[in-house]
Structure formats: C-alpha cells, structure tokens
Amino acid sequence: MSYQKAHEHYGDLVRMGPNMMSVSDPAAIPVVYPMQPEFLKSKFYDAFIPYSKTGSFPAIFTTQDENQHKQLKSPIASLYSLSNAITFESFVDEVLDVLCHQLDERFVSSEATFDLADWLQYFSFEVMGTMTFSKRCGFLETGRDVNGILATVWNFMLTVAPTTQIPVFDKLWHKNALMARLKKSSGNAILKIAADSIAERKKQQTTNKVGSKDMKQKDFLARFLEIESTNQSIPP
User: Fold this and answer.
1) I need a surface site. Which of 76, 87, 98, 219 has the fewest CB within 10 A?
2) In whole angstroms, how far apart are CA 159 and each of 5, 32, 120?
3) pLDDT per position in the chain (236 positions), as tens?
4) What is the pTM of this model?
C-alpha cells in the first residue's frame, strides 16, 4: 500500500531508493521490458538464484547476464509460442475434469461452504505438474497441501523477501559454503521434486527404452529432454 500511496502523491515515476525506481504507468512496459535488452536486471534477482553446496547455477528468470539469458532461452523459446501452447490444452482439460469432479462430489449435494481460492491454487499447481511432468501431486484428490509443498513455496518467499531488498544479505545469510552446510535452503524441496521427476524420466528412457516419441502426449519435460539431446550449447 505504501507504493500505491507514493504514486498517488508523486505520480507515475517514484524513486524509492538510491538505485530503485518504481513505475506505475502501463504505457512504460514496452520501454522497461523491450524485446531487445535495455535495462539490465538488478540484484533483486540474486535472492531467487538456486544454490547448493556446489554453488549457484543459472536459470532464465534469475540470470542478469544477457548473453547467458539468450543461451538459455533461445533453444526453448518456440515451446512457449501461442501455436505450441495450445497443444498443451489436453493437460489442462484433464486437471479441470478432476477439479469439477471434486467440487461436485464434496460440496454440491452437501451445500457446504469452502474457500475457492484454496482449490484454485491446488488446480494451478496440478496443471503445472501435469503439463511439465505428466503427473499430479494429489492436491485436488485430497483437498489439501500434500507433503507441505505449497507451504514450502510460501516459506521460501518469506525467506527471500528481505534479501531482494538488501541483496548483500543474500550471500551473508544464505549463499555461502558455511550456510549451505548448516541449513537446508527453503527452496530445495521444490527443486528436489523437479530433479526426481527428471531422473525418473531419464531412467525410464534408459531401462524401458521409452522415449518421448512413445508418449501419447509430450509434456514439457519430454520436449526439454529432446532439445537438450540435440543442442550442445545448453548449459548442463
């Protein structure tokens, strides 16, 4: 609310700190986020960089290096085009059917009240899991946060929030060899889900000789692995 009040008082452009400018004019979006690099990402993104005992590793969302961003994005950019995005519609339909079934079964006949926001969050996470790994976590079937995954996401955001505003604290509190040994990162649980799914898929391809071409519908992981196998420029 303080940002909103500041813009109401000072206008569309407000300096919030020595190196921070807040912009509230939608017309400025193509200027701040142009197709060609103009404004480099700030240290704000350091807090979101995945980190382990072996160090940090690059990601499209977090990297501040334009050349590295291009190297990571270019091989997969076509997957996110509109023409390709609609090919994932069947995954969304599958999860939508589960959502409608659960709502009908749990609340229609009983006329019980429920928090729709919770169920929409379950739905969105299950859609992401189905589109990416062709499997759900069970949020919709159980009507709850399975294995505390959603709580982990929330706790991670609470952890990184202060360091997005004071980036120097990120290395002091989180991203150094000592802290990596003393505590687990709050984001590790989410990364582990992704890592386990990738390992499982690669094992299937090796032991059962089941490739992405054999899948009824290719999910994002299948397409990522196909691209990785044919493009040596992608970082490991």
Assistant:
1) 87
2) 26, 27, 24
3) 688 999 999 999 999 877 788 999 999 988 888 877 777 888 889 889 887 777 777 788 898 888 888 888 999 999 999 999 999 999 999 999 999 999 999 999 999 999 999 999 999 999 999 999 999 999 999 999 998 999 988 988 998 899 988 888 888 888 887 877 777 665 567 788 888 899 999 888 887 765 555 556 799 999 999 998 888 777 66
4) 0.81
One-letter amino acid of 118: D
Tokens of 116: 């729709």
Whether 102 and 141 have beta carbons less than 8 Å apart is answered as yes
CA distance to 10, 29, 104, 164, per residue, from 6 (Å):
6, 19, 45, 20
Element (H, E) at 14: strand 13-17
d(CA 36, CA 19): 22
